[in-house]
Amino acid sequence: MVSQGMVCTVDPRASDIGRAVLASGGNAVDAAIASGAALAVVAPHLCGLGGDLFALVHRPGDPAPAALNASGRAGSGADAAALRSEGHREMPFRDDIRSTPVPGCVDGWLALHERFATRPIDELLGPAVELADRGWPATAMLARAGSTLEGVAGAEDLVGLRAGDTVTRARTAAALRAIAADGRDGFYLGDFGRGLIELGEGLFTEADLADSQADWAQPLGVDALGHRVWTAAPNSQGYLLPLALAIAGHLEVPDDPADPLWAHYLIEASRQAGADRPERLYDGADVSDLFDAAADRAGLIDPDRRGEAPVGRRPGGTTYMAVLDGEGTAVSYIQSNAAGFGTGLFEPHTGIGLQNRGTGFNLTPGHPAEFAPGRRPPHTLVPALVTRADGTLRLVAGTMGGDSQPQILIQLLHRVLRTGQPVAAAVAAPRWRLHPGETGFATWTGAHGLDVEIETEAPQTWSAGLAARGHAVAPAGSGFGHAHLIEVDPDGAVSGAADPRAETGTVAAAPN
Question: Do β-strands 166-167 and 136-137 pair in parallel, antiparallel, or remain unpaired?
């Protein structure tokens, strides 16, 4: 038993909906589904029914969390050779339906509901339907994002907004009602599915949509910082977090985050972990051997010099949620369109934006991540949980941020688990990230002029100390990810933090 339930999301309406579910006796999974549906309505620039999700579910007494992979697969018409013949050297980033796998989000909700939920699905989706029907005040972030959709069929509800304007999404409400009434068939074989097949012009078949995109998989668990760190296995890049932690475990990382060596070692551990990401990350990849070589990779790190390794890519359209109920069940939940509104294409019948997770594929003939029918693309989403040696829950953790997600999380985990910072201080603390790339999904090419970006609030010691070690450093404002943390201390007291970088991030507590 813990002192209270808690929901941390990027939006106060979504957090309050989850809190209300907990307060009425629902469990953490009930709250996650209800809040996730609300986020799909109010934050379409980050996530939606046309995107994917991953989740970890911790239940007291279970030796490992349940791991849900609800990332979609490429349609039957996926054809890398056709893209190469058109002159493409990589997957199209925007405005091309071929970068849209079958969305997995709705299948993810239904898989979570079937296995763990206690409330009917129509009850859990009801608050999101009401939001979409009655409307809510647009955030400044949504209004800015919607300005990029002028003339896009299906996006009419999101264009021409100013902060504070009332937004309604009647078509999305209808899609949610169809799920509540008819399950997955109401969505995948209903108006949305038919529209997706039409847009795909041969990319998708009804059989593609008839198959569930959600699987229960083995989580990846690694001992680090005196705890067990859990995340999702490939096709998620989640392995980069425990691998970087394992590499850093062989280094004398200072206790003080203001010490530039603290930043240098964690940067270098992250770079070494991701050095072969393009080759090693694909659907079904076995990365166990990488952990056996963690000490060898740590041996390549010089405390006084930057090493040679690739750099990463920038944040996109993703939102993370942490949920805990009064019985101690927790959900680490992340859903995403990939980059903002994804492809920038919308299914016009339902007004649902379509993800561009297919940009994780490559066009290299014979590569295991080559764009091909039925494959899942390499994925950036990284849900995380941390348990103690006795199996009790310590942290629910995650962030938006594209390739930078494991980089942000290694900083947060070191601050909380090693340095002992309260979760609010850790989430608010300045961060570094490996330099983005031009598109936001440039996949560790190492071709960028800058190496490390640091938030402007970072200690001055970072900039000077990293530069002295050979890092090319640039300030980059503030906004590296929207992270959320929930911590449970040994006596059951709960604390949570929503990222202040998100203009509307909200922690909602539900006392027992």
Answer: antiparallel
Q: What is the pLDDT of residues 82-136, one digit of tens each?
A: 999 999 999 999 999 999 999 999 999 999 999 999 999 999 999 999 999 999 9
What is residue 512's predicted lDDT score, i.e. its pLDDT?
Answer: 77
With b meaning 16 or more CB within 10 Å and e meaning fewer, what string describes 53-64?
bbbbbbbeeeeb
* pLDDT tens digits for range 7-20: 999 999 999 999 99
For residue 282, being part of any structural domain is answered with yes
**Catalytic choice (9, 100, 318, 380):** 318
pTM of the model: 0.95
160 has pLDDT over 70: yes
Q: Is 374 part of a structural domain of the chain?
A: no
Range of 292's domain? Answer: 217-316+381-504
In 14-105, DSSP assigns E strands to 52-58, 66-70
What's CA 245's distance to the chain center, in Å? Answer: 19
Instruction: Kindly state the percentage of the chain with pLDDT values over 70.
Output: 95
CATH code at position 226: 3.60.20
Q: Choose among 146, 482, 192, 197: nearest CA to 336.
A: 482
Distance CA 363, CA 81 (A): 8
* Rounded Cα distance, 85 and 371, in Å: 14
Residue 412 included in any domain: yes
Dihedral angle over CA of 394, 399, 403, 404, nearest 10: -80
Q: Active-site residue 318, yes or no?
A: yes
CA distance 394 to 229: 10
Partner residues linked to 228 by β-bridges: 223, 387
